[in-house]
Amino acid sequence: MTILLHDGRRGGHATWLKETITAGLADGAILNPFATPLSAIPRHPSATTVIADLRDGQPPGSAGPEILFDSASWAATLPGTDSWQGYDEWDLWPHHARGDLSDVGAIADHVRAVFKVQAELGVPYLAPTVAIDTATGQAAETALELSAEASRQQPGCKITVCGMNSFWRAGPALDAYIGRLARLRASGCYVIPLRDRARYPADMTDTAALAGWLRSIHSLSLRSRVIAAYTDHLGVIAAAAGADTVGTGWDQGQRVCSPDAFRTSGPGGQNINYSPHPGLLARFTEAVARGLEDLASTFAGAMRWGEPIPSDMRGHREQHFRALNEQLTAVLNAGAVPADRYPAVRHMLTGADLSWDKAVALGAQGVSHNEKAMWLDGMRSGFEAYVLAER
Amino acid sequence: MAEFYDEVAKVLGATNLSPLRPGGQKRVFAAKRGGEDVVLKAVEVLPPRQAEVLERARREVTLLAKVSEASGRRIVSVRSGLATVGDPTAPSAVGWLEEMLDGQDLRDLFGTQWTRDEALDLVRGVAEALTYLHALEVVHRDLSPGNVRRRGDGTWTLLDPGLARHLAEFSLTGLYQPGTPGFRSPEQVPGGTPDTYSDVYCVGILAFAVLTGRFPVDPSGAEDAYFKRLVQQQPTPVKTLRPDLDEEFAAIIDRCLNRQPARRYLDADELLGALGKLTPGAES
């Protein structure tokens, strides 16, 4: 299983990328023009420098860390996006206004510009797209045209699918659309679940959308690699459906994708101090983690898989990726095809469910049925709905 | 007053017309031209869809001319260009000639449970023919038994790609989707977007039907209910109705019939690749 770290705007972020990848806790990074500048600014090295630094010191013959550049055109074309500082320095919309995809010429020019940037950075071709609200609407057609044009220009490219909940819950219309994308025979699919709200954990109350996202990952993974972007701990169920790569990070904006992340009024970096409790498939703030520890230290330690409550930022990051790696590996090791992985995931979810009940009964602050619903119940319902439809 | 098809026959030099299909806007006749047996297809160009009818006829003739020879007789051959009656820019009728095929329509062969090898021969033959259309990014869209014929020498041949959709060109059909009840894919519902994998689904229908005597998705009842079943219902695995089938062939048919197009063979070439591993005589 591959873990890729999404880009972020936190100062010193590039150093953390390097540290985490060097420590073997992640396999690469996904940069984007909203977060990494073309030219260096204080505490933010240029994209070229970041990439060179990540590749520096690799043994001869090694492929080095995987690095992608997501042009984030899906974010640039979202209503309300206004965080253009840095973005406009990249030449992604030559001959046209930013966001103009109104005709085939504009689409071709944008794809060409994105690929030119990726070629200059020395990273694989990853097609741009727009966020899709419905599977049969204009945005869906534009996204398909972008993907088709990208596949014409660079037949080996990966394509991007960025969908809102309303897209993922579209049932047969979603399946039909995924079929049209599959016809492009892309070498890989970069799949983004765009959430309505910036919240960690991601809102998982829309069971049909979660199941549709998993079903689409499953379908796409039958013939190409699937990168489940901005997925974080939901990678457990994404891996069960066939994803081989999960995108995550340390801040909310790296773990959950929402339009807020591209607005100047957005929440910015958060969640740095979440303490992983993989036994509950959850991450708690330090205060909650300590409250649980005070009430039942043996149980709390078991839920942290024996790790101490992290004492610093590095500890938080490292524990998070260690736990994620172990969970994803357990799912992948359960079998080569999705159906063989379902029992392992179900076992994980059932175990977490029982542990949550025990944790809630302890009465620790911040460990209630509400939190259980946020962290576990939605994920479990979505997974079960997906599995049921696969029978 | 002469009928429109008589006018078309006159332009094309065809005589001895004998109807092959019931009437309508498009009429099909057995005919003679010189000493050759041919099929005459004549279409009346009526308002308000003259431009569409004309364009569709032009496409059909152009497509046939392009693929029939290259396909090694797997797509029916055209024997004339497009003939027009009246003003060539606004004709009252159009028509063309096709070769007269020997052998039998698939519909004449329905009604009995076929052996595994007979069904495999059908699937492989239709898939081979489709590769010539799919290579041109053309979707047949009406793989019903009346459009599939086994020649006297055993070659399976596709007819009537008049409803075919060239993927690179603007669809003529809009919300209307061509197709024959029972032989439609989930993409051939109003608002759907048929693609090469839709023809693959229809090959799966043909195989399922000849092997089991049933449709994979029941077309009876109201059309809306049939369309809903098409997009929502995963057909029963063929092996449940034909347990004697070998796993490999059954899996190929089931994959053709996957409700989700991304999980099917994406085109006839992929399907043929899968069939390539099968050999006759492998009943389980």
Round the mean pLDDT of chain B to the nearest integer and report it: 89
Strand order of the largest sheet of chain A: 3-2-1-8-7-6-5-4
CATH topology title of the largest domain in chain A:
TIM Barrel
CATH topology (fold) name of the largest domain in chain B: Transferase(Phosphotransferase), domain 1
CATH homologous superfamily title of the largest domain in chain A: Aldolase class I
Widest β-sheet, arrangement of strands of chain B: 1-2-3-5-4
Number of strands of chain B: 10
User: Which runs of chain B of at least 5 residues are low in confidence (pLDDT < 50)?
Assistant: 169-174
Name given to the CATH architecture of the largest domain in chain B: Orthogonal Bundle
SS-based class of chain A: alpha/beta
CA-based gyration radius of chain A: 20 Å
Task: Give the arrangement of secondary structure elements.
The complex is a heterodimer of chains A (391) and B (284).
Chain A: E1 2-6, H1 13-22, E2 28-31, H2 47-55, E3 66-69, H3 73-76, H4 104-121, E4 131-132, H5 138-153, E5 158-164, H6 165-168, H7 172-182, E6 188-194, H8 207-221, E7 225-228, H9 235-241, E8 245-248, H10 252-255, E9 275-277, E10 282-284, H11 286-295, H12 297-303, H13 313-333, H14 338-362, H15 369-390
Parallel strand pairs in A: 1-2, 1-8, 2-3, 4-5, 5-6, 6-7, 7-8
Antiparallel strand pairs in A: 9-10
Helix pairs in contact in A: 4-5, 7-8, 8-15, 9-13, 9-14, 11-12, 13-14, 14-15
Chain B: H1 4-12, E1 15-19, E2 26-33, E3 36-44, H2 50-67, E4 83-85, E5 93-99, E6 104-105, H3 106-109, H4 116-134, E7 138-139, E8 148-150, E9 156-158, E10 165-166, H5 196-212, H6 223-232, H7 238-241, H8 247-256, H9 268-275
Antiparallel strand pairs in B: 1-2, 2-3, 3-5, 4-5, 6-8, 7-10, 8-9
